[in-house]
Each structure stands twice: as structure tokens, then as C-alpha cells.
Amino acid sequence: MIGYLEGEVIDSESTKIILKNNGVGYELELAGFKRQPRIGEEIEVFTYTYVREDTLKLFAFPEKMGKELFEILITVNGIGPSAGLNIINTMPASRFISAIMQKSEGVLKEISGIGPKTAQRLILELQSKLEDFAYLQSKNGQAEEEDFASEEERQDIVDALTALGYKISEINNALREVEFNEEVDLSEKIRLTLSQLGKER
């Protein structure tokens, strides 16, 4: 089983790359990357090898924690690799874990394909499994979401920007990059997030 790779990106498109390592090109499906790796770039990734009778796929993660979360996600009944990949690519791991621990079905339903029943099942099956992740976040001072943005404010930002036509996944990606000052009000946080969205398009 392949658990880690480093090398040169020789092809990069959509959600996949080919990573050259010791003369071998590995096709990797990306999970949790803030941006698409560029051709010629040297990167290192943690990988999960998915094997079935007619399928062999390698999923690549920029951090070990993302890989471990993915491995836990796909133990949930009805959550396969595609759904797990969708969760990780749509929502920051810290926010997803927080939603599970706080039983926030509304937050989980922001993820495409997750309805009330799936949200309830995720909470039921993952709470005990994600306790260690929640503890590590708290220990590292990351129990709250991105800098100085409360859950209520974050939802207001999402609501305002989806009304302008942006996708939730785009907004979440932008929020990963924005740093808010403690004194900044909600309207300024929306403006800063909108500015980041403009950079990413």
C-alpha cells in the first residue's frame, strides 16, 4: 500500500494530477488542496490506496490529518470514496469536525448530496471516532473556525455570498485564506471574503 509520495507534477488538470516519482507517474485524485498543483512543481503528499475488484485509485492529501479523516469518513455506511472526497473538498476539516461534535445538521447539509438523514447518520457514527481530532484542534487553539469568525457570522457570510451566486465550496475555500482582525465587523468580513473570491476566479 502506498501511503506517501514526493516528486514532480508532470500533469495537472481538474481534480487530478500525475506525480513523477523515481521514473513512475502516479495518477492522484486531489483531496483538501487549497489550490491546484502546477506542472513542474515539486510536492509531497499523503496517499490513500483504494482497491476493489475492478478499481484502483490513489487519493492525495496535503496533510496527514486529511488522510486520516478520509479513512474515518469512508467507514460510515453509505459514504464511499466519492462522498468522502466531496466532504473534504467542500468544507475545511476543522469546521466539519466541529459540526459533528456540536450536532450541527444545518452545517453538514451545506455539503452537496448530504440531506437530513445522511447528516444524522454522520453525527451518530462519527462523534466518538472524531473525539481525538476535536481534542487536537482544541489543544492547538483551533476549536473555533477561521480567525475571529464565529459560526453565526460564518453562516451570515455564506448566506450573503450564495445570494450573489457563489457556490458554498467556493466560499469555504475563500474563507480558508482570509484572515480577519478581531475588530472587523460582519460587513467588512463579507467584503474581504468577496475580494478573496475575486482572486480565485
Automatic annotation (TrEMBL):
It is found in: Cytoplasm. Residues 149-201 are annotated as: Domain III. The keyword NAD does not apply. Its main location: cytoplasm. Keywords: ATP-binding, Cytoplasm, DNA damage, DNA recombination, DNA repair, DNA-binding, Helicase, Hydrolase, Nucleotide-binding. It comes from the Bacteria. GO terms for biological process: DNA recombination; DNA repair. Residues 71-90, 106-125 form the Helix-hairpin-helix DNA-binding motif class domain. The RuvA-RuvB-RuvC complex processes Holliday junction (HJ) DNA during genetic recombination and DNA repair, while the RuvA-RuvB complex plays an important role in the rescue of blocked DNA replication forks via replication fork reversal (RFR). RuvA specifically binds to HJ cruciform DNA, conferring on it an open structure. The RuvB hexamer acts as an ATP-dependent pump, pulling dsDNA into and through the RuvAB complex. HJ branch migration allows RuvC to scan DNA until it finds its consensus sequence, where it cleaves and resolves the cruciform DNA. Has three domains with a flexible linker between the domains II and III and assumes an 'L' shape. Domain III is highly mobile and contacts RuvB. Belongs to the RuvA family. Homotetramer. Forms an RuvA(8)-RuvB(12)-Holliday junction (HJ) complex. HJ DNA is sandwiched between 2 RuvA tetramers; dsDNA enters through RuvA and exits via RuvB. An RuvB hexamer assembles on each DNA strand where it exits the tetramer. Each RuvB hexamer is contacted by two RuvA subunits (via domain III) on 2 adjacent RuvB subunits; this complex drives branch migration. In the full resolvosome a probable DNA-RuvA(4)-RuvB(12)-RuvC(2) complex forms which resolves the HJ. This is Holliday junction branch migration complex subunit RuvA. The lineage of its organism: Bacteria, Bacillati, Bacillota, Clostridia, Halanaerobiales.
